[in-house]
Amino acid sequence: MADLARRTAGKAAERFLQEQGITSLPIDPRAIAEAIGIAVIEKPDTSAGVSGALIKVDNQFVIAFATHIRSEGFRRFSIGHELGHYLLEGHAEALLPVGQEMHQSQAGYRSDDKYEREADHFSARLLMPNPMFAQAMRSAGEGLDAIMSLASLCETSLLATANRYIEETDLPMAMVVSSGQRIEYAFLSDELKEFRGITWPKKGSAVPAVPTATFNRVDANVRNAQRENNESDLRDWFGGNRSVPLTEEIVGLGDYGRTLTVLSTDTFADDDDEDVDLEERWTPRF
Ligand SMILES: [Zn+2]
Known about the structure:
The chain contains 13 helices and 9 strands. By secondary structure, it is α+β, with helices and mostly antiparallel strands. Helix 3 crosses helix 5. Bound molecules: zinc ion.
């Protein structure tokens, strides 16, 4: 269901870009809003959790973004999120019923609300649409380096870019966002999900005994946006019964106070099945 919402919202964003004749990166969500007659304004009076708002006065729509957001990438993501509310079917009707002038948003995958999630998926695809994003991935290199170079190409935040990258990759990969010794968010690529018996780390669960846990013990690592390359094992992160070496790339997210970990391997789950077959063939039967 969640995957369906992701796909539907993503397709709507890509279709919209096609209709607008936009075919190159970076995408400018502000220019897009203005081109379809929506003013984009600053909103200094928003509370901490609010990223922006969609406002409707006398049938005129306005997009506001919270000025406490300092990251340009996240500002752009917020504007994309509000565009999603305006363009996705059913959103404006549900969020701005007659008599209500403003919907306040929590963009950035922090809300479990259906409309908020859909608007996030819309924004991610609007700013990092296919075929352009998939094309750029082919020449971007690997892992965290690739994610960083795509973030600068698309002018998107590192987290939003990592998310799109993991969604699009055909390698077993995962991203984990942690704060101290707690996991805040994890996202696994389809190929990684193929490994049998692994579990998806839950929000709020402890970071296991992996290099990220050690990295996070030193505040300055996070604050100064330090970067480390390490190795760990699939089992340490996700359980399961198979040992698979992982590359564990870690980067501190500075003022944001969190850490991004990118995990990857070139071992595929299928290789596992082959191993089993081979083993069975060589095990004498009684
Ligand atoms: Zn919203």
